[in-house]
Structure formats: C-alpha cells, structure tokens
Amino acid sequence: MLQKNNNKKSNKFKTIISLIYLCLLFVFIGLFFSYFSYEEITSYKFIQTNRDFLLDLKNNNLIFLSLILIFFTIIWVILLGFGSPIALVGGFIFGKWFGCLLVVTSLSIGATILYIIGKYFFIDIIKKNFYKKFQNLGSKFKKNEFRFFLIYRLIGGIPFGIANLLPVLFNVSLKNYFLGTFLGIFPQIFILSSLGSGLEKTIGANQNVPSIIQMIVMPEIYLPILGFFILILITFFLKKILNSGAHNQN
C-alpha cells in the first residue's frame, strides 16, 4: 500500500514537472518570435548592423559574451532546440575555432542535462513512443557503449532534441554520453562554425547583399560546404556498416 502511494506521488510529481517543462518551452518560443519577426532576422541590413555590434561586444567583453552564448545554448538545447543555428552564430561571432569549441561544449552540456531530465521524468513517454522503433540498437550499445554512441552521434539523421533523449532507452552512462556527444558532433559543428565565420567575413566585405556566385567562390564559404558533403558521405558509409552489423546479428 505504501509502495502504491509512493508511486502515485512520483507519477504526480513527474506530471507536474512535465507540464512546467512544456509551459517553459512554449513561453520561450512565444517570447522569441514576439521580439523578432521572421522578416527582421532574415534582413541583410539587420544582420550587418548586428554584426558590427556583436564584434565590438566580443572585442570588449569576450568572457561575458562567451558566457551568454554558453547559457543560452544550454537552455536552447534543454528546450529541444537544434544545434545548427547556434553553430552558425558561434562561428559568426567568435570565429571557427573558438566558436566551435564554445558551441560543442555548450551543446554537450545542454544535451547531457536534457538526457538526465528525460531519464528521470520522461522515461515512460520515451519508451512508449520510441522503444519499438529503436530497440534493435540496444544490443549495439551493450556490446560497446561508447563506440556505438559515438557512431550514433556522428551519423545524425535524427532531430537533435530527439537524438538527445533516445539514449534513455539504453541507459547510457553520463561519462560516455557527454564524451560521445562532444566528439560525435564536433565535425559537423566545426563545419557549420566555419561557414558562420565565412559569412561574417563576407558580410564585412560587402555593403550590399552579395550574389550567390560571389559567395560560393570565397574559400571561407565553399570549403565548409565541401566539408559538409564529405561528412555526408562518411555518415552514409557509417550507416551502412551499422545496418549491416545489425542484419548479421539478426
């Protein structure tokens, strides 16, 4: 009887936490789009003006701006945000190397926190919605947890928010989760940060919107794009290896 009452209290607590989490998610999205319109954030003049402001802020308050990016990224990931825009912004403001390091670290911390939240408060929902589809990966993680989690991160192909929560199904250790996330997302984040850095240089060198041809011929732009396609080929072959391994086990 006591155990039953404890379970009820636990379920009630999880429900409250879930509702608070969802409310925060919708409030965040609502506030963001009430402050900026889509037309505004995609305006070249808006981007150019804020480029100068952000670069000045970085030169004068590097640590402060870095902490803001880290804090925002962690909250963004916890609220199921994806990493691509953060990587572009990080590279745009801080350059490809430092920006990449900041973003990868922040995304890894945010993903780990989200994993812990999912593990303790949303495990039943995650199992109900995803276990049947991904249960074949269980044997992979048991065989070599870190290696296959690293491959899982490298391959991608699953929305970042969901990819952060799926390892709950396989009870991945926090150490392997953080290191696997950090190393696994590093290549794609570096490419996106390089692209963001290239865009910053392009905008700085052009008062008006440059043409597609002008942008593509710049090494700062076409090299990250080339790297992106190479990464797609690598992940394609990794998927084939992973799938063939699964078929052999079956």
Descriptive report:
With 250 residues, the chain is an all-alpha fold. It has one domain. The chain has 13 helices and no strands. The protein has helices spanning 2-35, 38-41, 44-60, 62-78, 84-94, 96-121, 123-134, 138-143, 145-155, 160-165, 174-205, 212-216, 219-249. It is globular. The N and C termini lie far apart (43 Å).
Count of strand segments: 0
pLDDT under 50 segments (min length 5)? none
Question: What string gives the helices and strands in order?
Answer: HHHHHHHHHHHHH
Any idea how many domains? Answer: 1
Helix content: over 70%
**Cα-based radius of gyration, to the nearest Å:** 21 Å
Number of helices: 13
Q: β content, as a range?
A: under 5%
Shape label: globular
Main pleated-sheet profile: none
Class of secondary structure makeup: mainly alpha
User: Average pLDDT across residues?
Assistant: 76
Distance between the termini: 43 Å
Write the layout of secondary structure elements.
Elements: H1 2-35, H2 38-41, H3 44-60, H4 62-78, H5 84-94, H6 96-121, H7 123-134, H8 138-143, H9 145-155, H10 160-165, H11 174-205, H12 212-216, H13 219-249
What labels would you give this structure?
250 residues, mainly alpha, 0% strand
Task: Offer a concise description of the structure.
The chain is mostly helical and 250 residues long.
